User: Fold this.
Amino acid sequence: MMEEPRRPDDFSLLGGPLHRLGRRLGLVRGGTRTLALGLALGLIPWSILMLLALVEGAGQQVISPAVIGVHARLLLAIPLFFLCESLLDPRLATLVRTLVDSGVVPPHARPALEAEIARIRRWKDSWVPDAASLLAAVVFSVFAAQLHISGTTASYDPTRAATEMAMAGQWYLIVCLTLFRFLMIRWLWRLGLWCFFLWRVSRLDLRLVPTHPDQTAGLGYLEVVHAHFTPLILALSVVQAAMLAEEISTGLANFEAVYPAFALVLVAVAVLFLGPLFIFMPRLWACRVQGLSDYMVFGSRYVNGFNSKWLGRGEPDREPLLGTSDLQSLADLGNSISVVREMRIVPISLLLLKDYALTALLPFLPLLLLKYPVAELTQRFFARLTGL
Assistant:
């Protein structure tokens, strides 16, 4: 029996064995609220780690700045992974429904869209992506030491702090770190799935309108969707900042390493979360060019008619100028051409760029405490404030 195509309001990227397990355990509510599952996946391994550290008498060592990456991955990054999908997934369904209801996907293209939704459903519900992500995480953990990853808790190294505790160190390296990498690779798979879906949608016979007030021919809601990636960006930045903090606190790096690390995060953000929006660039560019051509031709015809009617000579039966709608129509036509001229060829606004940049920057701000003591920062703040 053939599978029925999904309705637009059913579109989702959530699925797979882990998601189904979370639903059975009651940690996933409403099909999309998965934060409780993320908290459980972070807190339970972290609690076991802390218990093992206390048994070994290494309680002070496990809370030192040299192993801050442990807590950043388990207590912040993993829950943020699931917070992101909880916020993002409903917006994905709204996007697809909006494309249909607004006519951007016309009726004759809807069967093709439903076919793509059905394809995404099969892929996301398969056990293969989760299994492949887990295998990739295990392989990465095995060879991580040869990659010389920064941070004292990123891989096995007998000279680093995270491996000096026998039981706790092994639990972290074998279980906790592998779990974190599995969830991160699982998210990369979803980003790839999302990019594929956008690419397939961009190849449909879309009805793009160059004068649409969202300035992206009717695709403006894409920016709203991508604004909900900020928890994932925060998670990536938290991990990077934590690894850098480990390096600085142990003397393996200086504070100036913050700048290239932050630049690396910005590049990753641009590739992973802004890059997919460029998929529609050829269609939007063609829409803008065609819109300018059409409105310029139409504008020329209207202006010629306007000049002939109101500025021509020898027309005694001309209607009164006061009260005519011709002047307002001429102004409206000029506004329409301005909207087409200012149309964006990528659904990215300055506000989205600011949100991404500030989200990426936030975890790096506490690193200032590694260079400037709190007392010194307070003194400088009040000195600037009072001018003394």
